Amino acid sequence: MSAAAGGEAPGPPRGFAKRVLVTGGAGFIASHVIVSLVEDYPDYMIINLDKLDYCASLKNLETISNKQNYKFIQGDICEPHFIKLLFETEKVDIVLHFAAQTHVDLSFVHALEFTYVNVYGTHVLLSAAYEARVEKFIYVSTDEVYGGSLNEEFDESSPKQPTNPYASSKAAAECFVQSYWEQYRFPVVITRSSNVYGPHQYPEKVIPKFISLLQHNRKCCIHGSGLQKRNFLYAADVVEAFLTVLKKGKPGEIYNIGTNFEMSVAQLAKELIQLIKETNSESEMENWVDYVDDRPSNDMRYPMKSEKMHGLGWRPKVPWKEGIKKTNAIHPCTDKTPIAFAGKLSSKFCLKTSKNEEHATLPLIPTLHYRTLNLSVLNFIFLFLGKDRIMN
Ligand SMILES: NC(=O)c1ccc[n+]([C@@H]2O[C@H](COP(=O)([O-])OP(=O)(O)OC[C@H]3O[C@@H](n4cnc5c(N)ncnc54)[C@H](O)[C@@H]3O)[C@@H](O)[C@H]2O)c1
């Protein structure tokens, strides 16, 4: 474990009203959440645990890195001894668990890494948090656990039917989280959110990827027909949602964090071409689009009801036009920043998976890690995933 830059001097925890552990805090969404928590809750100590994977950047946290109520610890949620020690030394009251492998395309190529980090890592964290008797454990899941739907709107009691390895790993992790509520009444809360966009997102995800490609005078590569629709929430709205769940989320509950705003991937490409290439000509716009092979599975829509969140007083506020302008403005393109991202896109981890398409891929997790996978844990996972439908 290494404590880095800024924050507290070494020694026993000082008097803060609450000590909040945020995992994956150098990633996209959690870095926005941490900045808000550190600024808005000076009496809370915010501990950022992140292993600094390929998609992480501490630059996302530069504005708060020297604050007294912030601390960064580099470490891996998949290391039980380290995680146990962390809970013992940091006296954590609340956990916000974001850390995960998150790129759907990569999950088809590196499915076991996704199971390892997203399921086993979550179980390690959950077990240590339970032992440490933390007062709230918030698990950040995704609308993708529902699988796709054309018309049926999902609510929190809809069955989980994930259709890709990423979504399956998130659904399996949810099962572990829920089981701690069922078995021990350990106060867990699960959130399932729509696609999030905003500044600092790693350019493997569709919006920053299209922005980067267009800024480099390259075409937007669209999987399949491009008719798949996605709901997009601006990062600031999602931060508000997590702060709401932190304050008002009830133990044992699941909350959808969604929006009615949805757009097809083809339409999204058009919007970004209009914004960046400043054209409205259909034929010119077509020149900036390239249709590539579809993913092995690609859900058409994730329509979701978010009434429970509305009941807690949260609603998304930032209109698309405003959010996308802000996102584009923070993705400046110069020759010196070949990829529009605060962190570094290592060419070592770039993989060409189809025509005109580059994906950032994972550094391979050493085989040693797989040996630490407990077989009974794996059996438990496959028991859940083997079901036709995974029920809440
Ligand atoms: N981005 C979205 O649109 C979206 C939508 C719904 C849910 N989610 C969920 O929100 C969470 C955050 O998503 P994001 O897009 O910000 O992710 P991200 O990929 O930007 O960040 C993930 C972070 O987790 C860290 N991490 C990965 N493995 C780790 C490990 N073993 N130990 C410690 N840290 C580790 C990485 O270093 C990185 O900083 C994820 O759980 C994801 O499933 C994301």
Automatic annotation (TrEMBL):
Q: Does the keyword NAD apply?
A: yes
Q: According to its UniProt record, which cofactors does this protein need?
A: NAD(+)
Pfam families the record matches: GDP_Man_Dehyd (PF16363)
The keyword NAD belongs to this UniProt entry's keyword annotation: yes
Q: Which family does it belong to?
A: Belongs to the NAD(P)-dependent epimerase/dehydratase family. dTDP-glucose dehydratase subfamily.
User: A GO molecular-function term, please?
Assistant: dTDP-glucose 4,6-dehydratase activity
Write out the entry's keywords from A to Z.
Lyase, NAD
Encoding gene per record = TGDS
Q: What is its EC number?
A: 4.2.1.46
Name-wise, this protein is dTDP-D-glucose 4,6-dehydratase
CDD domains, sorted = dTDP_GD_SDR_e (cd05246)
What is an annotated GO biological process for this record, any one? nucleotide-sugar metabolic process
Q: What class of enzyme is it?
A: lyase
